[in-house]
């Protein structure tokens, strides 16, 4: 095949095979923008408010009291995002600030954001559609607390979410764990509690991505949810707040979909070459 023929073949292949498949088929695959979000961090908060109905938020939003150190740190974090900084840079600890304060601000912020995301798709997450809190067939999440569920217990996803959000609210509103007054020291167990909260919030991402991402896509909120997830992922990995094994459900799927895209590309290429000759 001469150069002109190869060029024509390439054009035809991309126009007739690759692009239609990419638009119609692969657009339905989950997580395709996780590593490279398609909306800049600067527009994320505004876009989320426009896409999601705040009246359907799963839980009341936790706010920082103006004038407190935590409020000022929250403003710093938002300013970094709004300035369009790379998310890896935006999550770094500001010079002169304490790690506990920085983590506390982000725990509350992520609780609010993930709360909003789940509240938006909660009408499609029912005891009938999601009888088990899971992230696909490989991952099942069981609930355990120090009160009613003293042993890991299998629950429906909405029941699990309700218990989770109740539990997190109790933690972040507890002055003994999340002190709001300047000068009040954090307890020695603070980081342990924060890690547990973030680990459990990650499970919400897993469930939403694997079981309800079609709903997110229908709402046109795909890019915004992906950006929120990447912000979360960069933060927890920056400070080693979640074990890497816990992060596997989304990392594995992202790699699998990427490999599947490459494999299908070469399969199409081979089939088209056979037809050409």
Shape: globular
Question: Oligomer, anyone?
Answer: single chain
The SSE order reads: HHHHHHHHH
- Average pLDDT: 74
| Rg, Cα atoms, Å | 22 Å
Largest sheet: none
Q: Can you count the beta strands?
A: 0
Task: Tell me roughly what share of residues is in helical segments.
Answer: 55-70%
- CA distance, first residue to last residue: 9 Å
Overview of the molecule:
With 277 residues, the protein is mostly helical. The protein is 58% helix and 0% strand. It is globular, with a radius of gyration of 22 Å.
Topology:
Layout: H1 3-24, H2 44-51, H3 69-82, H4 87-90, H5 99-121, H6 157-172, H7 190-218, H8 222-238, H9 248-276
Helix pairs in contact: 1-9, 2-8, 3-5, 5-7, 5-8, 6-7, 7-8
List the keywords.
277 residues; mainly alpha
In short:
It is built from nine helices and no strands.
């Amino acid at each position: 095949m001469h150069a002109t023929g190869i060029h024509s073949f390439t054009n035809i292949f991309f126009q007739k095979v690759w692009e239609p498949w990419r638009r119609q088929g692969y657009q339905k695959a989950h997580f395709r923008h996780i590593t490279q979000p398609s909306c800049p961090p600067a527009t994320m908060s505004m876009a989320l408010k426009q896409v999601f109905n705040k009246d359907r938020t799963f839980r009341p939003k936790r706010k920082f009291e103006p004038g407190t150190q935590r409020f000022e740190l929250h403003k710093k974090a938002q300013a970094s995002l709004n300035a369009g900084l790379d998310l890896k840079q935006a999550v770094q600890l500001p010079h002169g600030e304490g790690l506990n304060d920085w983590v506390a601000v982000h725990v509350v912020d992520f609780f609010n954001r993930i709360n909003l995301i789940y509240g938006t798709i909660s009408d499609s997450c029912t005891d009938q559609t999601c009888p088990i809190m899971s992230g696909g067939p490989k991952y099942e999440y069981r609930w355990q607390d120090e009160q009613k569920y003293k042993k890991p217990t299998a629950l429906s996803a909405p029941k699990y979410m309700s218990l989770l959000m109740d539990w997190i609210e109790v933690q972040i509103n507890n002055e003994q764990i999340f002190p709001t007054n300047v000068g009040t020291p954090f307890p020695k167990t603070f980081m342990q509690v924060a890690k547990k909260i973030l680990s459990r919030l990650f499970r919400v991402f897993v469930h939403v991505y694997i079981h309800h991402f079609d709903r997110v896509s229908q709402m046109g909120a795909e890019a915004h949810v992906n950006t929120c997830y990447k912000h979360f992922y960069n933060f927890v990995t920056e400070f080693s707040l979640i074990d890497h094994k816990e992060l596997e459900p989304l990392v594995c799927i992202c790699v699998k979909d990427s490999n599947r895209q490459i494999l299908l590309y070469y399969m199409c290429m081979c089939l088209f070459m056979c037809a050409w000759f």
